[in-house]
Amino acid sequence: MLIPIRTFRAVLAFLITSALFCLAAPVPSTAAEDGKANRVLYLNSYDRGFKWSDDIESGLAERFKSADRKIELSVEYLDARRFPGSVRYDSLATALSGKYDGYKHDLVVVSDNFAFDFATQYRKQLFPKLPIVFCGYNNFRPNVLKGISNVTGVNEEIDFAKTIQLAIRVQPSLRTLAFITSTGDPSTRRNAEVVETQLFPELSKSHNLVVLKDASLAEIRARLGALPPDSAVFLPGVATDLIDGRRLTSVENGRMISETSPVPVYSFWDFHLGTGVLGGHIITGLDQGRTAADIALRILGGTPADSIPVIMQTPASTIFDFNVMNRYGIKMTALPEGSLIINQPLKLWGHYKEQIILAAACAFLVMSALSVALLLLNRRLKRTQDEVMKSEEKFRNLFNNSETAMFRTMLDGSVVLDVNQKFLDMLGMTREETIGKPSAVLWADPKEREEMVRRLVADGRISDYEFRMLDRQRGIKNCITSLVLYREQGILEGSILDITERKQAERELFLREQALANSERFLKTIIDSEPECIKMLDIDGNLLMMNRAGLEMIEADSFEQVKGKCVCPLITDPYRDAFMVLTKQVFQGIPGILEFETIGLKGGHIWLETHAVPFRNEHDEIVALLGITRNITERKRAEEDRVLLERQLLQAQKMESLGVLAGGIAHDFNNILTSIVGNTELALMRLNPESPAIDNLKRIEKSAVRATDLAKQMLAYSGKGKFVVETIDINRLVQEMEHMLDVSISKKAIFRYNLNQPLPSVQVDATQIRQVVMNLVINASEAIGERNGVIAITTGCMDCDKNYLKNVVLDTSIKTGRYVYLEITDTGCGMDKETLAKVYDPFFTTKFTGRGLGMAAVQGIVRGHNGFITVYSEPDRGTTFKVFLPASGKMVLNSDLQTQRDDWRGEGKVLLVDDEETVRDIGREMLQELGFTVISANDGNEAIKMFKAIPGIDFVILDLTMPQMDGEECFRELKQLKSDLKVVISSGFSEQEVSQKFAGKGMAGFIQKPYTLSVLKEAIQKI
């Protein structure tokens, strides 16, 4: 007869253990539990019933149970698999904070990435300074712990390549590899990214790849059914189907795919074993839990967590299912040495003859040992009877001499059986007046006794039950009692504590608190009615109090939303340090005043002026900062408008003065150069070719040519260098320059052209515009230097109104209207603010051999054509120059097509997300003009909430750079909520840089700031 090996081993182990136990410990004994238990909190990323994390919990419990110290384990399920996303973080943290208020843990264990992120984000609130041990963390890298201390654990990194190598060894004729991947949760999404980026490029060279990404079971069945015999299936992900509204469990997923696959299925986790999966290089939740528990026990034993390195090598084993091997005709000899086989049947006697003989011998020893144990047990029983008698005597002494009132009565209240002296002293009665008398008469309220009896019968014991009792003079005493019921005898035992004086003190305290509360309400009413902000802060800047006006200033819905939180994150960076200096100063007794800018909780920017003074207690100690703050935004705006007007005036004067100077110098200089060049040419003609002065004259001629170029640049800067005006197409000009530009730039740089068709024509000097393009392209190439980089040339058309021109140029002479633009973007070193401020100044250069007239000439040429330039740059982020030239009105494309595009209107709901109120306002007006219904949000968090709350949103226009949740994170959250959602990214950076960031993520379109109505319409039409 064949029995499973695991069953036989279990029986054999039981028999041997029983025999050894009886021999070593012939009599039962009770071990005393010494020491206080260590409290460990386990945060499980998923839900109970998910086999992976259940196995981790089992591994933890197994190790903790066998430890030499007592471990009290608490388990919390964060349910991230069924409810992914970080929007529930705050509510989860609040719930756990309330649940464990007053209950201190010694260590926290977290499993999988969601619990790790949650624990580290809310560590200060929930369990400050506690060591954290993680496990099941997918693809851990050391930089995750940067800035985080007292954390260690074990990595969960699946070696996908090993399982694929196993499959190739087990199936030598393997030619087709099918992968089932998914992006439904963070773990499976990371697994898909790993196999796609690290394995597919090499595997595709030698095998045929079939990838089923986010596929349903129906699609999987159809595709797997068409696989050829030389195929294998791998499960780094799951099917997308739902059953009764829930996702498939891992076990269900493995079973359904294995049942439908005509070829072997390989996995990487133990929870797929036994579902029809052949096997693989397997990791187990048990190993993860056991390893994490071993680390936790070391920390609880005194080893600092930071001194224990993270275990990067994930425990794993090569495991195969014997039944599935038979199904596909796979021989044992094809498996690697040391492989584990499950479900392998064995012949009991043939394989375990020696063990069976040993078990029989052990059974004989067990029977002998039991006989000896019975004799010893009889002796122990006699000793126990003697000890019980001594214990009874000791209890009687403790009962009578206790300082706590104690008693024994019948449950029905008919008879008092026994009381101690403390009980008699409390009621002023004698033993004769009490023993044998009814106990019910001692209760002041019979209903209180009825409730006590009801609860005691239901639970068997009561702790701290409060009631009123009568003493000898029939006076009422307030008491609390703890009782135990002996049901068979109908007897109850208990103790009583007189709390009459404490109740009186509580009543007096309650009256005082009521009076204080009335005073506080009166004061709060006065403070809340003040139109200016009144607040109190501690020395670290945390809010202790704030009135209604202050809450409106920081855009808080209630004081509970900001109570105890630091105000520093609401203050913009340039003023944060100054605010903390003022706070420290006030706590030294020195009042002060400060103006600063704040960002409200909903993204609003305002300027505030605060007057801060010390707030002292009754002992004249400074306990808080008292601040009175007013909104000075309108005043600051008036000051900014005045400064802007002054800058515009200075810029106009500067440009006019420098232009006049450059033009005058260039004019006189050209007259001189004319003489020099002319006389040089004549001298060269008249001199004998053999004259030694020929070389000197040629050098003079060469220098004169360079001086001529310099004069041309000065004329260009003055805006007077435009000579031959013609109507041209900017796109055609750029295309004609393509070869010249290619040979002029670094070999490390590559060109990308984004020439929008059609464009209006422009009336310009084509030669000078070519000089502008060449200067900007060469500067971009030099900014890239020896690194690899991209230079993008983009053309387009914009309608520029007063509001747009006010924000991008200081020159008030620039007219509104339609402009053709030429944008040149590079991915080079970029410029800081100081360099940007001087970029057009004559003779300013960052080059060692430069003259500093290149960009000055570019600006002069553009200004001479009644145009303007904008520049956007950040250090190490690249630079974008955008040249605007007035459109001439002649369109390249025929009027019918253009009229059709101009008449286009849209419909539906649009979610516009931007942290700048001015951008939201102008964007809303543009979208409404195009026919759309607009919902706006000021940051990523609000966008997610609105998208969930408002149905029927057709597409989203999303800003890239925002506080709190930026555009990239918001994009991912929106795609998780609706995978086919159209999202258009809006940014001041170039399209090339943004496109690289969102490559392969489903970005529907791009709009570069600042944008016009026509640009916005064109972008929407494209999606």
Strand and helix layout:
Blueprint: E1 2-4, H1 5-24, E2 38-44, H2 51-65, E3 71-77, H3 89-99, E4 107-111, H4 112-121, H5 123-126, E5 132-138, E6 151-156, H6 160-170, E7 176-181, H7 186-206, E8 208-213, H8 217-225, E9 231-234, E10 242-243, E11 246-247, H9 250-260, E12 265-266, E13 279-282, H10 285-300, E14 317-321, H11 322-328, E15 340-342, E16 345-347, H12 348-401, E17 405-410, E18 416-419, H13 421-427, H14 446-459, E19 461-470, E20 476-486, E21 491-498, H15 500-528, E22 533-537, E23 543-546, H16 548-553, H17 573-586, E24 592-599, E25 605-616, E26 622-631, H18 633-686, H19 693-718, E27 726-728, H20 730-736, H21 738-744, E28 749-755, E29 762-764, H22 766-784, E30 789-800, H23 802-808, E31 817-826, H24 833-837, H25 854-864, E32 868-874, E33 878-886, H26 895-902, E34 909-913, H27 917-929, E35 933-937, H28 940-949, E36 953-959, H29 967-977, E37 982-987, H30 991-997, E38 1005-1008, H31 1013-1022
